[in-house]
Amino acid sequence: MHSNLWIFIWRRKLSFLLVVSGLVLLGLWTWAILIDTTAAAQPPAALLSSSERQQQQQQQQSTGYQQVHIIQKLIEQANRVLRAERLKDNAVEKSPSPVQRLGNVRFLRPTQAKKAPLPMSESFLFEQERLKILEQQQRQRNAGMEELNANAEDERMLSSAERQTQYEHELQRMGVPVVAGIGPDGPRAPAERLVHLDLKGAPPKLSFLKQLLPVLRALGATGLLIEYEDMFPYSGVLQPLAAHNAYKEDELRDFLECAALHGLSVMPLVQTFGHMEYVLKLSGFEQMRELAESPQSICPSQPQSMALLEQMLTQVIELHSQCLGQATPATNVPVAQIRFTHIHIGCDEVQRMGECTTCRQRLRSELFLSHVVSMAHFIRRQWPHLGVVIWDDQLRSMSLSELQHSQVGSYVEPMVWVYASDIYRFIQPQLWDTYAKVFPSAWTASAFKGAFGESLLVPPLQHHLENNIRWLAVIAKEGGRFSKGLRGLALTGWQRYDHFAVLCELLPVGIPSLMTSLSTVSKGYFSTNPRDNELLRVLQCVFQPDSRRSGRPWLELHPNAHHSQLFAVCNYPGHLVFKYALRLFDKLAEIRLYLQQTRDQSAWLSDYNVRHNFSSPLRVRELTDRTPMLIEELRAMAREAQQLLWEVYDEYTVTEFVEQHIYPTIEALQRQLARAEMLLQRRTWPQRPLPLPLKVQEDMGLVTHQQEQQ
């Protein structure tokens, strides 16, 4: 019986193999249906972003390819088994049946009926199934490609408003100010981008400025606006105007040639009306003041005033003109010509004008315009190729008829400056229309430091960036009013508010603000793509964070924040000074809070306790326990400032910085120790109530009850 069963199985082996293969195929088809059902339960593609839709489609295609690959392998294996069985059956049919003998008994192998060849449909069953699967997969693949192409086409077909909305959303994540109309599809960048070097305070070493030139050029600067003041090497009768640490003439020539090598133009700035303190403060020049007690502005009615200004302009212009085509002494390689096409003659913030006896006989507007035209006429007569630029603030209050009657538009180009975020608050559309009717072209000016506080240590980067971005929008809107357009934008970086003021933010501390604003102005918008933004490359940042992995943008700016963590890990000229300034800022803020708490908020070291010499010794010692340690920390930071700043500045700037920012806090801590020492000297204290000190009574005008009775 068992033999017959095995004989039956052996004869029907092909049928059993077909049944097993069919079951395998049925299982695979069931698996595919379950996967399709799971994919259908995923969120609709309409709710996903384009990048998520593409990623999902790629995963689905990859899964489908793997399934088809497995099915194809199984089908190929089944076809090989079928072919092998057919060959074996054919061989058995052709060979004679062997006869086995055992003694007198003969056993014959059971005869097999001839198998008819498998019909065409049966022999190619799996091949047809494979072709159907491949055809279906090809249709799916074509459908996926069509969907990808449709998505790409949808992105290309996004309206400008939709792209702008996506761009502004990314700006908000980064803390970058959003200005309507400024983006990748917005207006073009200004043609000229000048970087202002204010040398009337903390003048850097020219070796440091030379290191800065390639960085400025790489981020899109086209020129320099150099305000020398007393750092210019005046000679002859003007030699007293130069400071004791003024630049040497050969050093300045070398720097100007280096600027030409990097393709930067140079526009020198010489004040010729207001901000003349560095000249009029000196003995021998005081007679040219508008008012004897103030050296702020020069009197335009005195003949010697014009002679002095002409000599100053001549020396500055001649030095820059002589630098054309010179060879660098170190390399003896001819340099390119310096682009010296304009000179700036200042004329801003003329505080005391028209107040002397002679000037009082003329209108202020007439006095100002006449002086500006005279200076410009002198320059155009001597150097016809030079254009003349002035600050615009003194023109804002003048009428259109006054400006046109003076013909000032034929002599100068105004540089319109506003450092706040609301530019139209200071320059209304009507004023733009007036300027366009008087001047064929004009310049604009923003700020990257020195505009939000007379003695700040670190510039507020976000405020300056917003100022520059808003200027891009104003330039795009108002440039069409002028017949020759707006020439460009100057990014100013003030070092003092005037000659007598203390220092603003140092130039190395303002470099992150400068680079961020400069790259934005040069591109015409702030690029949110780190690969497209030049900051990371030019500033040599150590890391390039991937916002897709961390979930955080590569640059983060926040209101009232002075910096982003990005600039703390970058390597650029002056980066050590910037990092030091951040640490000093935090330390000074910590000590100010400490002094406020111990003096104004505590109950044992207040002014009242000191006036009455009445306090608890234990509490006083507890409150002043940290003071000696803080004094030593500040002294260590002062010594560190000397080492770091020496790479950028001379000893005069280093000592001025330390005296301005560190020494006052040390003095405050020492005063606190002296007050505490006085309170600790006492060993007995009077009974309450404590009498009112006589000085307090007199200063406040109080009358005691005893005085009323008397």
Automatic annotation (TrEMBL):
<dbReference type="GO" id="GO:0005737">
    <property type="term" value="C:cytoplasm"/>
</dbReference>
<dbReference type="GO" id="GO:0031982">
    <property type="term" value="C:vesicle"/>
</dbReference>
<dbReference type="GO" id="GO:0005634">
    <property type="term" value="C:nucleus"/>
</dbReference>
<comment type="subunit">
    <text>Homodimer; disulfide-linked.</text>
</comment>
<keyword id="KW-1015">Disulfide bond</keyword>
<dbReference type="InterPro" id="IPR038901">
    <property type="entry name" value="HEXDC-like"/>
</dbReference>
<keyword id="KW-0378">Hydrolase</keyword>
<protein>
    <recommendedName>
        <fullName>Hexosaminidase D</fullName>
    </recommendedName>
</protein>
<dbReference type="GO" id="GO:0015929">
    <property type="term" value="F:hexosaminidase activity"/>
</dbReference>
<keyword id="KW-0539">Nucleus</keyword>
<keyword id="KW-0326">Glycosidase</keyword>
<dbReference type="InterPro" id="IPR017853">
    <property type="entry name" value="GH"/>
</dbReference>
<keyword id="KW-0732">Signal</keyword>
<comment type="function">
    <text>Has hexosaminidase activity. Responsible for the cleavage of the monosaccharides N-acetylglucosamine (GlcNAc) and N-acetylgalactosamine (GalNAc) from cellular substrates. Has a preference for galactosaminide over glucosaminide substrates.</text>
</comment>
<keyword id="KW-0963">Cytoplasm</keyword>
